[in-house]
Design a protein that fits this description.
Elements (H helix, E strand, L loop, with lengths): L3 E4 L6 H11 L6 E4 L10 H9 L4 E3 L3 H10 L13 H6 L2 H16 L3 E6 L2 E6 L13 H6 L2 H5 L7 E4 L4 H5 L9 E2 L5 E3 L13 E5 L5 E4 L1 H5 L2
Parallel strand pairs: 1-2, 2-3, 5-6, 6-8
Antiparallel strand pairs: 1-9, 4-5, 7-8, 9-10
Helix pairs in contact: 1-2, 3-5
Length: about 230
């Protein structure tokens, strides 16, 4: 039986994603969940999207950045309002990538908002920002993608383990002077795996959690440039 790995908020840092895959070395039975925000801010959105779209081991969820990009791209008045991050500009610098934008948008629109994983005697709830809506009949997209109240309360949902991203963990810790780490709530029911991959100046790096073993893996820009 394979293992389940979770990471989030790669933000166009394709080199970090490739390095992380080299570190965890998933086999055919393993599953990697990416909790959204694969694009924007960083230099290589296409590198992340192409890897994710072509890797059968990866299940990507939608983040607020994928949702926002797809909505902006399909808006009838798009030309009047430039996209507020850099993904569109970066993709348009390459003719081949520009032609692939509709394919990328279609992929983003079809991304699920959440996932449930049962393993290791636990029921894990995965979403970009908040997992509370997963247990509701009416699942409000905005809360799944934006709501930080679980992180604010620093408590999860009793009987489950929730894994989210969206909020860089150095903000929870309150200091940027040390490398960011995966954050665990005091009640043990909430985990934030967004270690701020794109914010290297604040100690950000890409973090990854193995659900079965609890092992944590980290790669940073320094790891890439020192190779």
């Amino acid at each position: 039986m394979g293992r389940n790995y979770v990471m989030s908020d790669i933000h166009s840092m394709a080199d970090l994603l490739k390095k992380m895959l080299d570190v965890i070395r998933p086999d055919a039975e393993d599953r990697i969940y990416i909790l959204g925000d694969m694009i924007d801010r960083g230099p290589d959105p296409a590198g992340v999207l192409d890897l994710v779209m072509n890797c059968p081991n990866i299940t990507a969820l939608r983040g607020n950045h994928e949702d926002g990009f797809a909505e902006w791209y399909e808006a009838p008045d798009r030309d009047r309002y430039p996209y507020y991050y850099n993904t569109y500009e970066v993709l348009c610098t390459d003719k081949r990538l520009r032609k692939k934008i509709p394919e990328y948008v279609d992929f983003m629109k079809k991304l699920p908002l959440y996932a449930k994983v049962k393993t290791g005697g636990e029921c894990w709830l995965l979403a970009h920002a908040s997992t509370e809506e997963i247990l509701h009949i009416w699942k409000r997209k905005e809360r799944l993608l934006w709501d930080t109240s679980m992180i604010d309360r620093q408590r999860g949902i009793p009987g489950y383990v929730s894994v989210v991203g969206h909020v860089p963990t150095f903000l929870i810790r309150g200091t940027r002077s040390e490398p960011a780490t995966i954050w665990h709530s005091p009640d043990g029911c909430l985990i934030d795996v967004d270690c701020g991959a794109v914010f290297s100046e604040a100690g950000g790096r890409l973090g990854c959690l193995c659900l079965e073993t609890g092992e944590e893996y980290y790669v940073s820009a320094d790891d890439i440039y020192s190779c």
